[in-house]
Amino acid sequence: MTTKPPHILIIEARFYDELADELVRGAVAELERRGAGYDRVAVPGVLEI
User: Is 1 part of any domain?
Assistant: First the structure.
């Protein structure tokens, strides 16, 4: 049995750009460290999520 690495969707609200950048940077670093794949989608604010 083979196990595929997880693939995560990151949805980021871009209302506060600096905060969003830092949060995504940390999430991506951890996903890459653990060998997980990811897709990234940006939306203008939290209501669009």
Answer: no
